[in-house]
Each structure stands twice: as structure tokens, then as C-alpha cells.
Amino acid sequence: MAERSKTAETGSDIGIDEIITGNLNKFTAVPPGYFGQPKKGHLIFDACFESGNLGRVDYITEFEYDLFIRPDTCNPRFRVWFNFTVENVKESQVSAI
Hints:
single chain; two-stranded antiparallel ribbon; 1 helix; 7 strands; elongated
């Protein structure tokens, strides 16, 4: 059963699979409330290329991110692979994903 969530704008009840509809395109994950240019270590995720399937990234801490992988094209019940890039990593930065 799909996880359920409410949208902030409308308050309507939607499933998690409905939220993840496209690939991320150079998405910078920054701490909540941070404004300005990304600093070194603010990871930039990209999946806007053929076979990319990263739909959403949630910033948890400087070293932890929740990644939401889009379902496989031929079978939406499965997520058996992932393909995306990460940029702007600090030297020796280790992150849990």
C-alpha cells in the first residue's frame, strides 16, 4: 500500500508515487532556512538524463539525505535500480543515503 501524504497547498490526500513524477534537474539540497549560493558540501543531485530515476531528495542533516527513487517504467511496483549524479562534495565528505 502506498504511503499517504497531504499537499501543503491544497491539503488534498495524495499517494507518495503521485508526488514523484519526474527526474531531479541539478537540485541543491541545503539546510532548511538556508538562502544564498550553495556552499561546498551542499550536495547537488541530478537525474535529468536517460535512465536517471531520482525523483526527490529530502535534506535530513549535513551527512544524511532521504532519496526517493522513481518506479521502473515497465512495472511501477518495482524500484530495482537507481541512476543519478552527485556534485559539490567536500573533500572526504561521507554521507548516508
